[in-house]
Amino acid sequence: MRRGPAVEWFDRDEPKWMVALRRKAFDSFSKADWPTPQEEEWRRTDVSALDFSKYDYVEASSAESSAADSGSRRGKRAGIIEFENRRCAFSELSPELKEKGVRLVSLSEAVREENRTIEGLFEDSINRTVNRFQSWHYSQWTHGAFLFVPKFVEIAEPIVLTFNESGSGVFSAPHVVVVMESGARAVVIQRIRSGEEDEILCNEGADFVVSDAASLEFIRIEDLSYKSRFFNHSRASVRRDSAFKHLEVVFGSKLYKSRLEAVLEGSGGDLDLNGIYFAHKKQHVDISTIQRHAAPNANSRSFYKGAARQKGRTVYRGLIEVDRNASQTDAYLTNKNLVLNDGARSDSIPMLKINTNDVKCSHGSTTGRINEDQLFYLMSRGFAQDEAERMLIMAFFDDVILQSHPAVHDELHETIQERLD
Asked: In degrees rounded to 5, what are phi and psi of residue 343?
């Protein structure tokens, strides 16, 4: 059996409960096999050719990053935490928010402070692991960020989390925990990126808690090099009368595989799972979302749009699952894809699993080329063909982009334009 990176984290300066959880997750990892195409969720993504033993840990970077050259620090923000590989290189939080009890620290620091909220979240996630990658992550997580927003605290400007990864043959496993207490409100922007020549195996995880009447918008932008591989497992608990909005943006990595499960655990909850992805060259992007309704009278929507060009391939798999006691559910799932040339491919698999009556659930999926009538109209108005195509592709993505926080609109437009160039 192929192995992953050597286990070297059980002797770290961590509380006994975290060491025990790491060992529990590693036990699950040791007993499991790598996913195969015989499993439904991995049917279109084959990892059998990956040599995980070639990736290893890298020491935290000693280079200081400066505010002048960090794009993540531009614009208004309430707080920022930035990592260079495993090292927390920069951290800042508004003094006013600190006085109100907001916490923005590295995950390692939060664990050393005996944060039992993290203990409960990790234990629950480890008990629910669905594949070997997820068990691997919880046994070997390397660094991460912890955000806690107390009751009824509203944060006007975004909180920014930045993970800068570098090196060749490097294993990285960042983890993000966001806990919103009752009535709290926040917007969080996370970026994970690397240099063009870096080769990273990133196995990321996230846990979100959105308590009663709270609101969280989380934007995750992935832009690793085309030599890198990226895996993500995220889980969100959305409680009574709360709102969770998640935007997944995929631009980088040779192989990208993510799974986001959001559970509506209280009545009146509102869930929005949105995403954009653009695969070109030989990129392979495989995304799974799960809208699980565990309580009555809650709403959920998924809206994902993707494009594939050259030999890029995309896969979107969306599931609406309604438990037996979740009557009066209102759920919808939409996936739209553009295939820009003959060598590209997009697969869309929307699914429903309904276990009760008195619900309103549906899904829609489209895959096709650029609309010839729209292209002809723009060309008849004087636009060159390539310019008209770019305008139509940008408008295609704008349906999703403009639903997100304005702080990322320019960044996303610029990055899409770069891909088109």
From this structure: -80, -10
Q: Are residues 209 and 70 in the same domain?
A: yes
* 257/383 same-domain check: no
Grouping H, G, I as helix, E, B as strand and the rest as coil, residue 290 is: strand
| Count of structural domains, the chain | 2
| Mean per-residue pLDDT of the chain | 91
Which structural domain, as residue segments, surrounds residue 61?
Answer: 16-265
Phi, psi (deg, nearest 5) at residue 242: -100, 170
Question: Is the residue at 115 inside a domain?
Answer: yes
Has this prediction a pTM greater than 0.70? yes
In tens, the pLDDT along 100-133 reads 999 999 999 999 987 889 999 999 999 999 999 9
Q: Which residues pair with 331 in a beta bridge?
A: 300, 361
Tokens 């983890």: give the residue.
Answer: 175
Query: Final residue of a domain: which of 216, 250, 265?
Result: 265
Measured between alpha carbons, how far is residue 80 from residues 91, 194, 325 in Å?
6, 18, 40
Of all residues in the chain, what percent are helix, strand and coil, respectively (each to 5)? Answer: 25, 40, 35
- Can you give the length of the chain in residues? 421
Looking at the domain assignment, is residue 289 inside a domain?
Answer: no
Please state, as a whole number, how many other Cβ atoms lie within 10 Å of the Cβ of residue 247. 23
What distances in angstroms separate CA 305 from CA 170, 218, 375, 414, one per listed residue?
30, 18, 19, 17
Return the axis-axis angle of helices 385-401 and 372-380, rounded to nearest 10°: 120
Q: Alpha-carbon distance 225 to 232, whole Å?
A: 16
- The verdict on 379 and 246 lying in the same domain is no
- Are residues 377 and 255 both part of a single domain? no
Rounded CA-CA distance 241/95 in Å is: 30
Q: What is the pLDDT of residues 54-69, one digit of tens each?
A: 898 876 554 444 333 4
In a domain, 395, yes or no: yes
Q: Which is it for strands 79-84 and 87-93: parallel, antiparallel or unpaired?
A: antiparallel
Q: How far is CA 371 from the centre of its chain?
A: 30
Same domain assignment for residues 399 and 261 = no
Q: Which of 209, 241, 265 is the last residue of a domain?
A: 265
For 188-238, the DSSP string reads EEEEEEE-TT-EEEEEEEEEEEE-TT-EEEEEEEEE--TT-EEEEEEEEEE
Q: Which two tokens stand for residue 321?
A: 């699952």
Q: Terminus-to-terminus CA distance in the chain, angstroms?
A: 42
Q: What does the alpha-carbon distance between residue 393 and residue 276 come to, in Å, rounded to a whole number?
A: 12
Q: Tell me, yes or no, whether 322 lies in a domain.
A: no
Q: Is the dihedral of CA 207, 199, 26, 37 positive or negative?
A: positive
